[in-house]
Amino acid sequence: MGILKTRKNKKFSYNPRYYKNEGEGSPFEIKHKFDEFRTTVGSNPGLKGKFKNAWEDLRQSKNRSANRRLIFIIAILVLLFLYIIDFDLSIFFQKL
User: Which residues are within 8 A (CB) of 56 and not within 5 positions of it... i.e. 6 or more apart?
Assistant: First the structure.
């Protein structure tokens, strides 16, 4: 048992009893239902890459009503936050 060596997992030649191999892949592979449709699933590009992928996915979305709803909800939450912290909006308006 070395200090710098990582431990290897044991491998067994186990075949499930009721598994029928119909070209669906391995029964041990864990895969989400919609992974092949998502662009944000996969390699971990970092925080900037994640936001870039999510933004591209949002722009390429076919459902425009969902995009408008999302923007509307974000605007409401921003205005609610500004109201809670008692932000003064009069700095944006000129006094005559």
Answer: 39
Residues 33 and 41 sit within 8 Å (Cβ to Cβ) = no
Tell me: the pLDDT tens digits for 23-55? 566 666 777 777 677 665 666 778 888 788 777
**40 contacts 54 by C-beta, under 8 angstroms:** yes
> H-type helices in the chain, by residue range?
47-59, 64-84
Q: Say if residues 1 and 8 touch (Cβ distance below 8 Å).
A: no
Q: What pLDDT shows up at residue 70?
A: 84
CA gap 7, 1 in Å, rounded? 8
| Domain coordinates in residue numbering, the chain | 17-87
What's the token pair of residue 66? 């969902």
What is the pTM (predicted TM-score) of this model? Answer: 0.38
Distance of alpha carbon 33 from alpha carbon 30, whole angstroms: 10
